[in-house]
Amino acid sequence: MKLPYIFATAVMLASFNANGAGNEEAMAGESRMAVKEFFGSLKGELVGAMKAGGPVNAIKTCNLKAPEIAHMISNKKGWDVARTSLKLRNPNNAPDAWEKRVLEYFDKRAAAGDDTAKLEFYQVVDGNFRYMKAIPTAQKPCLACHGGKVDAKVDAALQDLYPDDMARGYKAGDIRGAFTITRKM
Ligand code: HEC
């Protein structure tokens, strides 16, 4: 499998190419900030809803707030900011071909022992700056809704909203998915 090598080379080129390299570095930095904002807002909403009414209550929060926060940040920045995964809960979050390859690359890096909290990848594709950052699965609170064994009420609430839910069976440390940003150059 040659992909990891190709990706590593692309990152090196992105870093060392004199043409616009600094620009891409700067855009990667801005992307990291946007991801921090997205993750921070969502985690705040999630933890608040879990405290207020447990995971069944928090499912509604994820269902409504996750797309809402993504739209809010996308509009504010004028970029496309979203979450995606290889095992989807919401089919609206499906990866395109480029995102799928990067997600597969993240899984390979994780299997090779890389720190999943630091995995990111960016590249200029068809006149867009594209950035992805892996989202590791934490024991708490993630496994309550993404673990192998979820509470019966959580299970029923998830099946109700997401009849094709694939986002189960994760263990702490697995990559649950990624933040993904597309931005016109
Ligand atoms: C209270 C239940 C709940 C908890 C806890 C939870 N999630 Fe989710 N997760 C959801 C729901 C519901 C969705 C679908 C959101 C949507 O409709 O966009 C989702 C979607 C996602 C997605 C988007 C990709 C997809 O499958 O649609 C990612 C990535 C994700 N969750 C990661 C996490 C991580 C990481 C944690 C722990 C920090 C976590 N989740 C905790 C319920 C939960």
Give a written overview of the molecule:
- This protein is globular.
- A four-stranded antiparallel beta sheet has the order 1-4-3-2.
- The chain has one domain (3-184).
- The mean pLDDT is 91.
- The chain has helices at 3-16, 21-77, 97-111, 143-146, 152-161, and strands spanning 80-84, 120-125, 128-136, 175-184.
- Helix 1 crosses helix 2 and helix 2 (21-77) crosses helix 5.
- The chain is α+β, with helices and mostly antiparallel strands and 185 residues long.
Rounded radius of gyration (Å): 17 Å
Number of strands: 4
User: What is the CA–CA distance across the termini?
Assistant: 30 Å
Strand content: 15-25%
Classify the secondary structure makeup into a structural class.
alpha+beta
How many DSSP H or I helices? 5
- Please give the largest β-sheet: 4 strands, antiparallel
- Oligomer description: single chain
Helix and strand run? HHEHEEHHE
Please outline what is shown here.
This protein has 185 residues and is α+β, with helices and mostly antiparallel strands.
What does the secondary structure layout of this molecule look like, with pairings?
Elements: H1 3-16, H2 21-77, E1 80-84, H3 97-111, E2 120-125, E3 128-136, H4 143-146, H5 152-161, E4 175-184
Antiparallel strand pairs: 1-4, 2-3, 3-4
Bound molecules: heme C.
